[in-house]
Write a structure and sequence with these properties.
two-stranded antiparallel ribbon, globular, eleven-stranded mixed beta sheet, 12 helices, Rossmann fold, binds zinc ion, alpha/beta, single chain
């Protein structure tokens, strides 16, 4: 049987016309409740569904949002730093392209990395347990879910948890493209939201957390992981770091269930060493070599984190923190916030 790709010119929100692959234009990944809950990212208006687009029903907006290979691209073109053209052309933003399985990438996989997430699996188990205490078939939004996040396989193992995996880029797991500053869902849609290694890459993390709060049901849960002592990664798409208390304030509209270090001081030291070495070199090939050299000579540092992760000193030196919380009607007061400090003054 011969498969023929159907190509069609699609008008993008930027007004340009793009030739895109129109195979499987029937939103195969999205169940009916997801389609019902979708809203316009520009004005929160209801959306009319077409095979090749979603169009805003609000007469004052009338934004048209394309569908690419069955994946809706629900981005507000005026507000987002990500352009729909980039997505339609599958242009590289800050994510590494999927591994091609070539010799170089296979060799690279043999060398241990500098990174180790000590707590994610345990935290996701606790998150799943808390979700199930809330309802038997929780609906969970994943922001930054184009690839499988560290430890999230724990949630994937539960068939009754329905994950809606979204990102600003197309990736192996992207079901829907959206920007966390304007989450294209009606309020109170989800039982849980996962935002892992994302909030450092958004221009306004406070706005994104407000959006997470909005799309959660009244006792909905959030699970976040955000870096503290990590050098710039993702080039120009890297904006902010938080201390542990700063991270707590970011989630001030939530009651804390658990929080702490998720990647420890060993990983932070390994990254600092790698970036110290990198700062001497400009040549891309030399920088590749330096990255490999750093991995070979410092990969072991991350294993100290198994011993350090729960020590109070690690709170002041962690590579990244996690926060698990429940949506609250009232924010924690700043005066009470400083009492949440868990480090060693
Ligand atoms: Zn609209």
């Amino acid at each position: 049987m011969e498969f023929q790709k159907v190509m069609r010119v699609v008008s993008t929100l930027s007004g340009n016309e793009q030739l895109v692959n129109m195979d499987s234009m029937t939103h195969p990944n999205l169940s009916p409740w997801i389609l019902e809950s979708l809203r316009c990212p520009s004005c929160s208006g209801a959306l009319d569904r077409f095979d090749d687009s979603f169009r805003c029903h609000n007469n004052e907006c009338r934004a048209s949002h394309p569908v690419v290979n069955g994946i809706p691209v629900l981005i507000d073109k005026k507000a987002s730093i990500f352009s729909i053209d980039d997505i339609l052309q599958d242009r590289k933003t800050f994510f590494p392209r999927a591994s091609t399985g070539g010799l170089r990438s296979r060799l690279s996989k043999l060398i241990p990395t500098l990174s180790l997430n000590v707590r994610a699996e345990k935290n996701y188990e606790s998150f799943a347990e808390t979700l199930f205490a809330k309802c038997p078939a929780p609906r969970v939004l994943v922001l930054g879910g184009s690839i499988q996040g560290e430890g999230i396989r724990v949630l994937l193992r539960h068939a009754t948890i329905e994950l809606v995996e979204t990102d600003v880029v197309l990736g192996p797991r992207t079901m829907l493209i959206c920007d966390a500053h304007n989450i294209p869902f009606a309020g109170a849609t989800f039982d849980g939201v996962v935002v892992q290694a994302v909030l450092e890459h958004v221009v306004d993390p406070y706005r994104c957390v407000q959006e997470i709060h909005r799309v959660l049901q009244s006792n909905g849960l959030v699970y976040a992981e955000t870096p503290f002592m990590q050098q710039v990664h993702g080039g120009k798409y890297d904006f902010t770091r938080f201390t542990h208390v700063g991270h707590r304030r970011l989630f001030r509209d939530f009651d804390e269930l658990e929080s702490g270090a998720v990647c420890g001081p060993g990983m932070a030291l390994a990254w600092a060493y790698e970036y110290f070495l990198l700062s001497w070199f400009r040549n891309p090939l030399a920088r590749k070599f330096v990255r490999l050299f750093a991995r070979v000579t410092a990969f072991y540092l991350k294993y100290f984190d198994y011993f350090l992760i729960d020590r109070p000193g690690a709170i002041d030196a962690a590579s990244a923190y996690y926060f698990m919380g429940r949506k609250s009607p009232r924010p924690i007061e700043d005066r009470k916030l400083i009492n949440t400090y868990k480090g060693l003054p």
